[in-house]
Structure formats: structure tokens, C-alpha cells
UniProtKB/TrEMBL annotation:
Name of the encoding gene: Plcd4
Molecular-function GO term, any one: phosphatidylinositol-4,5-bisphosphate phospholipase C activity
Name of the protein: Phosphoinositide phospholipase C
Coiled coil: none
Catalyzed reaction equations: a 1,2-diacyl-sn-glycero-3-phospho-(1D-myo-inositol-4,5-bisphosphate) + H2O = 1D-myo-inositol 1,4,5-trisphosphate + a 1,2-diacyl-sn-glycerol + H(+); a 1,2-diacyl-sn-glycero-3-phospho-(1D-myo-inositol) + H2O = 1D-myo-inositol 1-phosphate + a 1,2-diacyl-sn-glycerol + H(+)
Amino acid sequence: MQQGTLMRKVKSKSWKKQRYFKLQEDCMTIWYQSKRTGKTESAFSISDVETVREGHQSEVLQSVAEEFPPERCFTIVFYGRRGNLDLVAGSAEEAQCWIQGLRQLIEPRSFPLTFALVSRTWIRDWFQKADKNKDGRMNFKEVQRLLKMMNVDMNEDHALRLFQDADKSESGTLEGEEFVLFYKALTQREEVQSLFQEYSEDGKKLTLLELTDFLREEQLEDEGTEELAMELIDKYEPSETARSRHVLSADGFLMYLCSLEGSIFNPQHRGLWQDMSQPLCHYFISSSHNTYLIEDQLRGHSSIEGYIRALKRGCRCLEVDCWDGPNGEPMVYHGHTFTSKIPFREVVSTLGKTSWGNSSSPLPSMGMSPPSSHPQRYGQSTAVQGISVLPESAARRHWVAQGASLSPTPQELKHKILLKGKKIGRLEDTLDGPGDEAPDVSDDDNGAEAEEERRRAKVRGTQPGSALQKDKETLAQALSDCVIYCKSVPFRGFQEARSHSRPSEISSLSEAKARKLIRDEGNEFVRHNAWQLTRIYPSGMRADSSNYSPQEMWNVGCQIVALNFQTAGMEMDLCDGLFSQNGCCGYVLKPPFMRDKETLFNPSDPSSREGPGPITLTIQVISGQQLPKVANSKEGAIIDPLVRVEIYGVPADQAHQETKYIENNGFNPRWDETLQFQLHVPELALIRFVVEDYDKTSRNDFVGQFTLAFANIKPGYRHIHLLSKDGTSIPPSSLFVHIRITE
């Protein structure tokens, strides 16, 4: 990577300043300084960087797209709520040099390298914070200050012994590798060492046979165990001599336990592991509400960044509310509120560039509220022109190629964008063949559509044809033709839906309406969702962009459970936890008993589920490692951590238990407590591990969490790598647990 590169830092269309950017010698820190004054403005650690985007993949860079070509532009995205850093390099070659260099630093090729890099980066970061006089050395007073910063309340005599043992030069200070030795002594894992010695005959190494025994007896690996043991030695043993002898040292054993293979999340479920050839209605689909908003619902900022963030997070169902704008240009914003507006064409352009970055799965619903004033036809045709630039937009060509299948699959619809919205007439009448124009809505009472409208009007007690005529008057035919598999229809009860609706139709329900149906007609709701899509959206009272619990909606098989992605909390933890599997493609296959149109399952009665009886989940919470301090805590404050395990699922499975709190130790707390849960419908259960800072006088403070579906749990001795409140990684913070599952 080049160092001291002159680039433009862009904050807006009018704010573009030249800055020198330089990678420090430690390859862990980047600073930048003003070209004019030479003064260093800021610096950041590589560990703070989440990803690097190429081209015009931010609202700021899109605003200067005419001035700077995409090959010179890139965006550095940070963890948490820190703003993006938008940059323009002097040439495409310089841009690629920085993009590829940064990606190599933040995305190592193997997890062991990630673990080692994170640890070393973490050590360097703390060293620099504690080295007040910046002389590259630390005396014992600075070390004591560092221990407080690292959440460690250690006996002074013990800390001095560790300091003196690491001070090989006997200079009274620690520098470079001496500090690394001090850190290693500080992080000695007694619980891991005792487990290692339990299976090691000489207490120094695990032979291939001993490691195989551990994997089979403790980790419950039952297939190809000896081959797996060989792979783990080759992958995680740091000593070349030990690798050649096919043995695993204590350091290698710890590396394995902290790796992807040692994680609580089954590594085989991280990739695409589920059947993707089922109808769309057989999947839970990651879905967002008012995707364009990044703040509240009334006065919040609308931004294409909302779409970029949601897509990067695995969302596959986006919302685009189009309203009339100046000169017939549709605008996207929350109608009848004071939210800011963004041009529809910018949204479409962003979706065309970013929809398939993380997943090739279809976007099953780009929900569109069409421009709605009477001279709106021009605005609607403008919207159609915008949609037409999308690759494989709306999946019309798929329909023609595949024939009139009313139940397409994610596999068939890969790289397609489907529009959810109103549609004139029946789906079958609109697509007679490639290039054919859709017929106008017929007023002929003998037509099939009119017959259906008469049936529905009879049920509703309204005048036949009134709804159809209204659609004709307000909806442009070209926009109607873009709606293929997700025609929006009002929900008027399960009986009418079963009699008159089609699999290609979708109904949207408020959270309150959905809860009433769950309470009164739970089984009918599950059956309905076995053959037709249902979308749930937040109450209009949630002006602060808060969320409802998606679990109760998933319990009855609702596929599109729309959440406010910009609001962190338990609800988004559940969403991230469910969709972190299956390659993060945004689709999770529902259990078999929720895909049967004649199912007897009702979430309020677990015995209605066909299959084996309840299972017992036993979790021994052993220890924690390097837990972060609470945000905005007082200097020198040390947390009193406890662990709470929460179960989300059908009502009978909802539960939580917690450990005692450990006083003044966020660095290496030991709990050694066992929690036990009974799960009646494990297929729907999500497990959330929460670490909090105990406070006897007020509400506990959040420290970290990790959520996953029960189906993805790997039993045995496992590490849980904690996430922050907004779902980003907080390395190297983790929990060490032992998991058992019994019937």
C-alpha cells in the first residue's frame, strides 16, 4: 500500500478538501493531515474499519458522480455509528492500491490469522493509549493505569510480579515484545489449560489420538473425526515442529477453541446450506420498513445510505415510498410527514449497484407506493423508466420463460427484483407472451376479473367493480405491468383468501392486526402463510422508529416481517440472529410443519407440532474474556458482569435465566454456572446471550450480546464472540461455554 498519498476527503458536493493519508509503520494505524497546514487532523485503527466500498456507493460520492469517475472513488465504513470516510484518489491505480491494501488488512484469509491479528491489534491499541509520554515504553505506573482501562482490578503485588517477569531487559519499563509477554501472562486461561490437561497425558501436547478423543467425546463430532483432528492441527498449531509430528500444543488448542470451528455457531451453516427450490412463501425473508429512513419516522433523514446498510446486513425486502416531485420526478420519503426527500432515480441507481453484493437471492418486494396526484401519470412513467434500468428488473422475463408458475422459488428468481404493489386485473391476463402488451382492465361483466370482483364485493357488501375502476383511474398500466409475483391485495379474512386469492398475491397487516389474528386464529394463520406471502409492518405510533418483536410473527410463519433497521435493540438482534445463517442470503427455510397447507400447528399449543417431544438445552457459562467497558462510564470504573441467556420462540418456550455478577472484573470473569431450558418447538427457537454490567441502584448497562437460531448451535466447549448494541463485532470480547442438548 502507498504511504503519504494525496487524496480528496469529501463531505458534501461543496466540501472537498485535499488531505495526505498515510499508513503507519505498525500497519495498524492510518492518519491524515491537511495539505495546506501540514497539521495531523485525525487517525484511526484498522480494527475500527468494517469494510471498504468501491465507486459511488455512498450518498456523498453519488452527489459528486459527475465530477469524479467511480474508479477513483471509495468509501471507508467504520464499525458502530461513526460516519463514513468518503475519498477520491488521484488516479484509479491509487484508489485500487488503497482499496486492496485495506481489504487485505481487515479481511485476512483465515480465521487463525484474524484471531492473531485482532489480538495483536488490540494489544497495540491499548499500549498506545497507556503510553502517555509516547516514548514507546511503559513504566509500572502506566501499566497500573492500563489495567484499569482494560477492566482489570488486580492485586498490586501480583501485577508487579507479572511486570518484572516480562521486563527481560531489567530496565524498569516494558517495550515492544516485553509488553506482549506481559499481555500473554495477563491473559493466561486456567479453564482452558485444565481442559487441555484433562485430555493430554503429558500435559504439554495433545496427540492426534488424544485430540480425536476430545473432538468425539466433548465436541460431539461423529463423522471423519480423525481427519478433522489433522485439519485442526495443520490450521491452528503455530509450531512447525509440532505440526510435522501431528500434535497440538496448548497455544494451538486455544487457537482452535477461539476459531470459527470452535464457535458456538455451526460453521457448516454459515454457507448456503438450505434447499432454495421451495416456493417463496416457504421462507422467512429479511425485511425492512421505510428503508430510506435512518432516523425517526416524522422528521428523520431520508438517505440512500439506508438501502446500502440494509443490503449489506442481508436484507432482501426493501421499501420505496414514491410520491410526486417537481417536474414529474418521483421522490422517495415518508408521505405526509416532514422527513427529507431523495430522488427515486438515485434509489434505483443504488439498488442496481448494490443489490447483489452479499447475496444473489431475489429481492422479493421492493414495495412501492406510486406517485399519487392526478397528473401523476407522467411521474409513474418516469418511475417505470427508472425501474427499467435495473438488471433483470421485476422478473417479467422469468415469467415468460418459465410459464405461468404462481409459486416461483428463490433459486429460479436469483438476481431478480420483484415489485410489490397494486396491479390492474389478474396476473394471468397481463402476461400472454414476450413483448405482448398487457390488456386494459376490462369492464365486461363476463370477464373473469369482473366475476372475481363481484364475488369479493358480495362478501364485502360493496358495489361491484368499484375497486377495479379506482385502480384503472389512478394506476398507470406500465407500472402495473411491473408487478408480477407480489400483487398487493387487502386482507379480508382467511376464508375469503382461501377461496379467492392467489399465491402471487400478498397482504400487509399492521402488528396489532397480526397479533389479534395470532390470538384468535393461530392455526389458520399458519396455514395461510404456507401458500401465500404476508407482510407485517410496525404500528404508526412508533414515530421513534422503535420495533416490535418479530418472533411472534415468525411463530405463525409470516415471511416478510418488516423492522426499522436503523434502531438497535433486542428486536434487531433476533433478526440478525435468524438470518446470520444460510450464507446470510436473507432467506431461511421454514420448518416442515409450517409449509403444509393442512398443518395442525398452532404456536399457542406446542403439542400440535408433529415430531419428537421437547428437548433440554443445558448451558454451562464458564468464563468471559476482555469484555468492553460500558460506554460513557467514569474513568477507572470497572464493570461487574453477569450473563443472561434468553430464549425466544413459541409462548411455552419463552424464558430467561442469568448468572450471578462478578465484582470488578471485565477482563477474565469466571462464573462456572449451569443454566437449563426445556424447548417444545426448538425449530422456532432463538437463543440470545447478553452480558450486562450489574447495577444495584439502577438498570443494568448493556455490554455485549450474541443471538443465533437453535438449529445453528454446535454442542461442546464453545466460544461466543460478542457483538455490540448495533450488531457489529467487538473483538476480542467473548464468552466461553459448554453446551449439551438432550431429548
